[in-house]
Specification:
By secondary structure, the protein is of the alpha/beta class. It is built from 18 helices and twelve strands. The longest helix has 25 residues. It starts with 10 loop residues before the first helix and ends with a helix.
């Protein structure tokens, strides 16, 4: 049986992991992300161990440059004061201004913010664009809130956040719980406080005030562009494959759209309550109406397609993963696929996994997939299309220009092809045996470490 506790040969690497784990013992998500990345970097670290150790490279890499934590007071529709906690983790700015989304969800805490920001460093480096890594958010829950409550919360959140961001400093975007509506309220408050139209300070904006075409579709489309390249490199195609997608948010919806355009049959999607199974293929127009217009639950799909099946969540394994599929796209949240779920997927004949969410597979699941030669598209590479297109939005803002949907989409596709090529090149260079997880980490690390070394010990 394979476990996530790999034998580490590098004394320096082992020391850094142990010391970081001890310092952050209560931050399980951050430690999980850190171990997954650092253990995969061992071939590179062994090659440069004395150099990296002398300049404390890894110690600096695992410590955020800055963590900002603040209270967010706001008033609900009943006139009652509420208080939430806000975060911004500016993890590494060696290759550009900090870049990463804002997440509004009750689960948000410092550990989750650090894990997401740490992952973002590597994801952003893979895009080839000049953006560093950061992440932020709040434990505020937008579900069930009125538009006015969400506006008041966003304005209060930005009152503090605006002190720490700027188009050449730190550029937030959306994430779970933060869509176009929230970005609009955040940008409006930033503009009012700062008395400047700094369009590049936030991405994911509306088209009317500096947003980019194809940004909404970018993460899901990018996931499928990466999947297509990965399958092609291994003599497979997307066309004709059966696909299941966990989640039904922005990433899941547009991964479904692109998968269908590529000739795949998407048969299942889910939300936190359960999943729908439609053997005839998902009616995406119905999903868009339920989720993007009505902000409803996925079980409402049966009103549109009565012959479909709804399966409620029960137990530890989400029911969607019991449905047989060639390609599985986890696009919901972290640690959605456990070791037991990974075994079930392989048993059901899955040949490829595409991580649309951040760290949706546990470390044990990742190692099990790799050991069993399942093609695994890691999140920091496969879902980088969103942040890549955010950087393209920043470019358009700087140029005072607006590119067509087709122009942005083509640039996105080329970026995703280049990201896969980087993963594959590192995989072959270090004889990893079709391990694109390690390939992505190594390719990104080499860029980040070279930038950090060039800029001195800071």
């Amino acid at each position: 049986m394979i476990t996530c506790e790999k034998e580490i040969k590098s004394g320096y690497l082992k020391k850094v992991i142990e010391e970081t784990e001890q310092k952050n013992s209560n931050e399980k998500e951050f430690i999980q992300a850190l171990k997954e990345v650092l253990t995969s970097l061992e071939p590179v670290i062994i090659k440069h161990e004395s150099e990296y150790k002398k300049i404390g490279l890894l110690e600096r890499l695992v410590e955020p440059e800055r963590i900002i934590s603040f209270r967010v007071p706001w008033v609900d529709d009943n006139g009652q004061a509420q208080v939430n906690r806000g975060f911004r983790v500016q993890f590494n700015g060696a290759i550009g201004p900090y870049k990463g989304g804002l997440r509004f969800h009750p689960s948000v805490n410092q550990s989750i913010m650090k894990f997401l920001a740490f992952e973002q460093i590597f994801k952003n480096a893979l895009t080839g664009l000049p953006i560093g890594g950061g992440k932020g958010g709040s434990d505020f829950d937008p579900k069930g809130k009125s538009d006015l409550e969400i506006m008041r919360f966003c304005q209060s959140f930005m009152n503090e956040l605006q002190k720490h961001i700027g188009q050449d400093v730190d550029v937030p975007a959306g994430d779970i719980g933060v869509g176009g509506r929230e970005i609009g309220y955040l940008f409006g408050q930033f503009r009012k406080i700062r008395n400047t139209y700094e369009a590049g300070v936030l991405t994911g904006k509306g088209l009317e005030y500096g947003g980019s075409l194809a940004r909404k579709e970018a993460t899901g489309y990018g996931l499928m562009y990466f999947m297509k390249e990965m399958l092609k490199a291994n003599n497979e195609t997307v066309s004709g494959k059966t696909v299941i997608i966990s989640g039904s948010g922005n990433v899941a919806i547009y991964a479904c759209e692109k998968a269908q355009q590529m000739g795949a049959n998407v048969v299942a999607m889910s939300d936190s309550s359960g999943c729908i199974y439609d053997k005839n293929g998902i009616n995406l127009d119905a999903i868009k109406e339920i989720k993007e217009v009505n902000r409803g639950r996925i079980k409402e799909y049966l009103k549109y397609e009565p012959t479909a099946e709804y399966i409620e969540n029960e137990g530890d394994m989400p029911p969607i993963y019991s449905i047989k599929a060639d390609i599985v796209l986890p696009c919901a949240t972290q640690n959605d696929i456990s070791l037991e779920t990974a075994k079930k997927l392989i048993e059901n004949g899955t040949i490829a996994i595409g991580e649309g969410a951040n760290m949706p597979c546990t470390n044990e699941a990742v190692e099990y997939f790799v050991a069993n030669k399942i093609l695994l598209a890691p999140g920091k590479a496969a879902n980088a299309g969103g942040v890549a297109t955010s950087a393209l939005e920043m470019s358009q803002n700087s140029l005072r220009a607006a590119w067509s949907f087709e122009e942005v989409d083509k640039k996105l596709e080329n970026i995703m092809i280049n990201i896969f090529n980087q993963c594959e090149k590192a995989d072959k260079e270090y004889n990893l045996g079709i391990n694109y997880v390690a390939g992505a980490n190594i390719a990104a690390f080499k860029k980040i470490s070279n930038a950090m070394i060039a800029q001195g010990i800071i």
